[in-house]
Amino acid sequence: MKQSLTYTYVLLVLSMMLWGGTWVAGRVLAQSVHPMTAAVLRFALASIILLFMCWRADGRLPRLRRDQILPVIFLGATGVFAYSYFFFTGLQTISAGRAALIVACTPVCIALISALFCGERFGPLRAAGALISLVGVSVVIADGDPLALLAGGVSRGDFMILGCVASWTAYTMGGRAVMKHLPPLTSVAWSSFTGTLILLPAALAEGFIADLGNVRPVDWGCVVFLGFLATALAYYWYYRAISIIGASRAGIFINMVPAFAVLTGYLLLNEPIHLSLAVGGFMVISGVYLTNRA
Q1: Does the pLDDT value for residue 15 go beyond 70?
Q2: Is the Cβ–Cβ distance between 228 and 239 less than 8 Å?
Q3: Residue 192: which of 2, 55, 46 has the closest Cα?
Q4: How far apart are CA 30 and CA 222, in angstroms?
Q5: Coil, strand or helix at 231
């Protein structure tokens, strides 16, 4: 049991590392193509990989019962279509760091909804862990001055990223219900595929074909990273963790994403790392630990 939990936590941390990189990759891609084009490219590649993984695991493509189709479409509509639209649209106008801080509200939303509607415990220790982790995120992103992030007011881009919070919370909670009847890999594969189908008409209406001519070599690299690593693998690992430790305990790990986003910016864009990263990162990890204590 301890080995299984340790393995689950390792996969969650790896997922957060990959998602930390999505803010840099998404920011690069959003400057070249329309948000719907970027989303279709990402999830079309992810769907092919995920369905291939299902075929390799079971010897055939997974099948859905009639009563499972609508729940899976809900996952595709929230975690793929809605999240992608808000993600790429928001990154067109606000910085990756500010967006990552807003998304850090997601674990708190997941934990509260899990407590209200799913009976998961959310006692004082878990509440303290969520709060410490959230404050740590703000310290990391704001370079030690969290209030500075609010100086610019609330923009349309901020509201777009708040849409990411709402759609990912719905995706997480919907996935919890779907995985009572479907394994994690099948759930993610079909949600990615249905989400891509929902995205495609919107992308075609926004000039998807013409947009393909604007994709640079670096953009294709971002698509591969987003589609294969940050979606096909990380989504599967995240859903697998939900099926083992629950939605709120898995969701709190999302607070690690902004710290990894800052680290990725340092490694790829030579952005400086200050003492605030160490302090805030320690607070994030401490909050995750408190929330996941037995």
Answers
A1: yes
A2: no
A3: 46
A4: 10
A5: helix
Q: How far apart are CA 248 and CA 278, in angstroms?
A: 25
Nearest Cα to Cα of residue 233 among 5, 2, 4, 19: 19
pLDDT score of 171 more than 80: yes
pTM above 0.85? Answer: no
DSSP 72: H
Q: Tell me how far apart the terminal alpha carbons of the chain are, to the nearest angstrom.
A: 12
Structure tokens at 210: 């013409």
Rounded to a whole number of angstroms, the CA Rg of the chain reads 18
Q: Are 44 and 196 in contact (CB under 8 A)?
A: yes
Residue 16 makes CB contacts below 8 A (sequence gap 6+) with: 253, 254, 256, 257, 260
Contact 192, 47 (CB under 8 A): yes
Q: Specify whether the CB–CB gap between 292 and 125 falls below 8 A.
A: no
Q: What's CA 191's distance to the chain center, in Å?
A: 14
Alpha helices in the chain (DSSP H): 2-30, 35-58, 66-75, 83-90, 96-103, 106-117, 124-141, 156-178, 184-205, 208-212, 217-224, 234-245, 247-251, 257-269, 275-291
Residue 273 burial (C-beta neighbours within 10 Å; 0-12, 13-18, 19+): middle
* DSSP 8-class letter at 146: G
pLDDT digits (tens, 9 = 90+) for 126-154: 778 777 877 776 776 666 666 665 565 55
Q: And the tokens for 6?
A: 């340790």
- Identify whether the C-beta of residue 92 lies closer than 8 Å to the C-beta of residue 157: yes
Token reading at 110? 């997941």
Residue 230 · residue 18 · CB < 8 Å: yes
Task: Output the six-digit token pair for 169.
Answer: 């919370």
Please write the tens of the pLDDT for every residue from 88-116: 888 777 776 667 767 777 777 777 787 77
